[in-house]
## 1
Amino acid sequence: QQQVKQSPQSLIVQKGGISIINCAYENTAFDYFPWYQQFPGKGPALLIAIRPDVSEKKEGRFTISFNKSAKQFSLHIMDSQPGDSATYFCAASMMSGAQKLVFGQGTRLTINP
Amino acid sequence: GAGVSQSPRYKVAKRGQDVALRCDPISGHVSLFWYQQALGQGPEFLTYFQNEAQLDKSGLPSDRFFAERPEGSVSTLKIQRTQQEDSAVYLCASSLVGSTDTQYFGPGTRLTVL
């Protein structure tokens, strides 16, 4: 059972454009939603995270939008740059009890110069 | 000030061999996690330690997988009698204390079972 579903699998965006990646979750007990960025041969690195008490969080060019009623959240990358080309994973976890991150399947983002 | 380190970075094993993968977490980090990442997929949780205590091992796929963290620092993931389906990248992550503290990932160990 896929608890966190991510789309699209791959995305190509022109330099300067907006990249949008979407995730949906099933378990309403999830209350922490991070996004990770992974370059080839490297481990995932935290990009930005949100908790469900807010609907949006912005850090520089990266914004998370969160819709609790729809159980969906998305990552927006503004002014996308070639250096943003990587695989992005959404994830979810519970602040109490189980500590594990449940990851989406990943989105391979390519920014064309 | 080093991050999470893992060794070896690459491991090739013949089917049926035992392997041991090492994780050195960030100094002072209480929590340690192991994840398995199949090619083209997101990481999947294997097990979690808080100090030396293994609090969750629900993700270990079979009793061939065993993890330990005897002194609450370095951890070892052992896979006995490796199978081809064990081929994956094994990621270790550590965090300061709790579930919403940032998990810092190591570079992973790529295991290939022939």
## 2
Amino acid sequence: GQNIDQPTEMTATEGAIVQINCTYQTSGFNGLFWYQQHAGEAPTFLSYNVLDGLEEKGRFSSFLSRSKGYSYLLLKELQMKDSASYLCAVLDSNYQLIWGAGTKLIIKP
Amino acid sequence: ETGVTQTPRHLVMGMTNKKSLKCEQHLGHNAMYWYKQSAKKPLELMFVYSLEERVENNSVPSRFSPECPNSSHLFLHLHTLQPEDSALYLCASSQVEGDYNEQFFGPGTRLTVL
């Protein structure tokens, strides 16, 4: 079966750095997405990785290792507005998105 | 604002009611999706329409019936639902070209079945 694993919840301090991990086992791989979802709002696109390595976009970076079936989202200089759920999703061999259950990130002052 | 709107935002219905959810995308995309999001569970893909044709059903119960009259509009018709169908229903759209498939989501309809 297809499976995406990510921690259910994480807590971090304002101004700090946090890394959210995602491991996957899917039938094929055509890319990995990270989305952010604030409570009661739509998920919004953060990043896309299809090749191994690190993609940096401002305070957010996303890393992919296809051989390990592993990705992480790195958030730097945390702000209170970063409190949200972070969803990892993999595009499988049928070009369908397989979703993780999301990681709820709580930022404390 | 993602360019995808959904109405209503909240819906409470009894098990014998019939209601419809509406989604509209203003992005010129060629694919639209219905997802179900339950607490602490992964997003469940329900239906996919590509170029207005349904391409995925994913064994969704027949009490959910999708309709895609054109590339900008998507409906989800609901009838004789069960309490376990209470969830957030998200609509998304994307421009499917080659391998890339970034999906843009609407704000969702919070459905409660009594």
## 3
Amino acid sequence: QAVVTQEPSLTVSPGGTVTLTCGSSTGAVTSGHYPYWFQQKPGQAPRTLIYDTSNKHSWTPARFSGSLLGGKAALTLSGAQPEDEAEYYCLLSYSGARVVFGGGTKLTVL
Amino acid sequence: QVQLVQSGAEVKKPGASVKVSCKASGYTFTSYYMHWVRQAPGQGLEWMGIINPSGGSTSYAQKFQGRVTMTRDTSTSTVYMELSSLRSEDTAVYYCARAPELDYWGQGTLVTVSS
């Protein structure tokens, strides 16, 4: 089974910009992996921020954006807010309707 | 409005089975697949599988093949996830989430496996 990798932790200053990445053990991440990004705060269910690489839900703050960068999926947060401190997970889809989550990135806004 | 309401917390002994339900409302039940995802205490998210409520077809993560069964009841708009041969490592919060965009999630069901 494929392994999806994320940075274990990142720190960003309030108002700053940070990019989280999501890689695949099978090779470059493409739009065909339909990358998703989720935000999870303690005690809450995950919330989808980005689907299909770069699409946003109505509730996704404009400061979040998704893209492909250097063979990985990327989530960029521009203008970090204290409420963005959370765990972020990516998800990739593989052939045969298989889906794999990354291990998560703990984002600290400090 | 779309809602996914899951069954309540369960405590099971090792070797037993658990069946978690997820009742959907606010949309056409058979038009959207449903994922099941779990999260062990302090750990990350783990995808378990997906079910098509229309025809009942399923796809399971390799790790759970042979131990998990996902079913649905179209008359009550409910999907079920049954996990057998439980062990302590199966202690987790189990979520259902609507596909394809995982835009709506259930509130989670805590399953505790303990002797």
## 4
Amino acid sequence: DADVTQTPRNRITKTGKRIMLECSQTKGHDRMYWYRQDPGLGLQLIYYSFDVKDINKGEISDGYSVSRQAQAKFSLSLESAIPNQTALYFCATSGTYEQYFGPGTRLTVT
Amino acid sequence: QKEVEQNSGPLSVPEGAIASLNCTYSDRGSQSFFWYRQYSGKSPELIMFIYSNGDKEDGRFTAQLNKASQYVSLLIRDSQPSDSATYLCAVHSGAGSYQLTFGKGTKLSVIP
């Protein structure tokens, strides 16, 4: 089984809808991250969490929120989706400095 | 602002040749350096990391670090078509931070 899993893998939603992306990990890492990736823009950090009680905004947190339900689970929510949030979303975990990525969620907002 | 720069490519090399991928970074205090491979539509996969000046070899991959020049590179020997992907350089600045700063990646194409 994969160490970092993301659900759903693909999602199409409409403008204004609330959507949640979920991430689970079995690596036992404390640190978890959410990124989005757009063509030509590289990986942009949305939120990160160093433990269940520690959540921090990244460089592009507007329009997003997160919840760290347990050490192994970190969810990303789009409260009211808009078309420019169409992107590939990755969850990652780290024990020390190197990060390990989940398979990604391809989100399309129409 | 911490920056990591990579040539976007595409870098084209013939099968069997050495591919050389380069990365420069702006934060002189950076401590750890990582190379990720990303196939189109897939997630980044860690292939190498290096902490000290000099070379580090792992199979066909060699990472090279020169902190004085703020430069890190990845060499791929005996390049194969399966090496065709985008390679991301990532830098950890240290100082109690666990964030990585990623470059935008270099697209490598290995021509059979």
